[in-house]
Amino acid sequence: MTSDAPAGGATLFEDIGLLYTADPEREEIAGAALIVEDGVVAWIGPSSGQGAPAADRRVGVAGRAVLPGFVDSHAHLVFAGDRTAEFAARMEGLPYSAGGIRTTVAATREAADAALAANAGALVAEMLAQGTTTVEIKSGYGLTVEDERRSLEIAGRFTAETTYLGAHVVPPGVSADEYVSMVTGPMLEACAPYARWVDVFCERGAFDGDQSREILAAGIGAGLGARIHAGQLGEGPGVRIACELGAASADHCTHLTDADVAALADSGVVATLLPGAEFSTRSPYPDARRLLDAGVSVALATDCNPGSSFTSSMPFCVALAVREMRMSPKEAVRAATAGGALALRRTDVGVLRVGARADLVILSAPSYVHLAYRPGVPLVDQVWKDGVRVV
Ligand SMILES: [Zn+2]
Asked: What local confidence, expressed as pLDDT, does residue 93 receive?
């Protein structure tokens, strides 16, 4: 077996036990083979490779499962510092509030670019080893014009899916009105060239509905796509704002009114669920069944951040979604692949179909169901990105 594929030529993955494609046309195929060429999927067929175009090399999958690389559409990886003590205190009974973000802001402002990049790079590598081949990375721990700008510049070294989250929390020493003016003015101007998305933490203790609408509208005006943190700690206006403004995704969605659920279903805004946050704050999980039964598109993501969800593991989130949120294994894996891609408005990742990027995971298990059936077990055996083996 090759450690990485040479440039050019076709690679045949043969004897796949169960191929999960996330393509609604044929979502799973028992006994499959797949050919990768020039970094994309070139052919999918029976495990014998019968009828396949000629391949230059073969990778024997030996009856194991293959699925698309995970798409983690919500992560906060540009930060410094540690909040172990806060986590431990919370597990002893202290409540979570949005204010803990300020601890990380202070450490991040102190840190050199190289330290921030090294930390983010280590987390991206950790994610890749667990099967995540596409990750979104937010700013939001700088909260000054220059610290947000450099956070996004660093994020852009690791992903094209960079999100301007200057509106994470109002930093100390600034009034909320002054800060919203900065976020929609000079900070946006400095950050927009480095960002694809704009995001706001719409929550009590962070930004209210009017502020959130103003911040997202300004970002949209600067050419960014919108996404929002909504309904993490309580019901609020965030989901409605996301639907009004045509955001790609409303994230958290733990506390929703019936009107919120209906608006998500009607608008096509993806509900991105982040069960690592509920796990790490010992809070009730979002009601995924209510969303799925209403026809809402659901994504799963890690929310990887040092305060409220310090996991980088999509397999862990899949297991939580199945056990704690009543998603079926297939629904959870779909949400962690195609769902995440939809939340980033990407059609080239999170799916294995001809023409899609050859980002795929080989499990040391016969089926993707094992991701939930065997929680906490390192089942990701190989990871291929753009047709090259990277793990
Ligand atoms: Zn978040």
From this structure: 87
- Decide: helix, strand or coil at residue 74: coil
What torsion do the CA atoms of 55, 32, 372, 355 make, to the nearest 10 degrees? 60
Q: How many Å apart are CA 71 and CA 180, to the nearest integer? A: 31
From the list 319, 248, 325, the residue with the least C-alpha distance to 286 is 325
274 CA distance to ligand 1 middle (Å): 8
Whole-number mean pLDDT of the chain? 95
| Gap from CA of 309 to ligand 1 centroid (Å) | 9
Q: Is 137 helix (H, G, I), strand (E, B) or coil?
A: strand
- CA of 245 from ligand 1 middle (Å) equals 19
How far apart, in whole angstroms, are the C-alpha atoms of residue 245 and residue 121?
33
Ligand 1 centroid – CA 324 distance (Å)? 20
Please calculate the CA angle 21-289-71 and round it to the nearest 5 degrees: 35
pLDDT at position 84 over 80: yes
- Distance from residue 49's CA to the centre of ligand 1 (Å): 43
pLDDT, mean of residues 38-46: 96
User: Which range has the worst mean pLDDT, 93-97, 185-189, 227-231, 354-358?
Assistant: 93-97
CA distance 319 to 204: 30
Residue pLDDT, tens place only, 320-348: 999 999 999 999 999 999 999 999 999 99
Indicate the helix (H) or strand (E) that contains 363: strand 360-363
Q: How far apart are the first and last CA of the chain?
A: 12
Q: What is the model's pTM?
A: 0.96
